[in-house]
Amino acid sequence: MLLIKKPIRCLMGFLFLVYAIQSFAQTATPQKKSQAVPQRIASLNICIDQLLWELVPHERLVSLSYLTANPVWSPIAKQVQGMPLNHGLAEEIVPLHPEVIFAGEFDAPNAIELLQKLGKRVERLPLPRKLGDINEQILQLANMVGAQENAQHMVEKINAEVADLQAANVGKTPLTAFWYSSNGVVIGDGTLEHELMQLAGLRNLAAERGMFGFNQLDLELLLSAKPQILIVEESQDESFSLAREYLLHPALKSADFKMVILPAGLSGCAASVIGDVALTLRHELAK
Question: Above 50 in pLDDT, residue 112?
Answer without folding.
Answer: yes
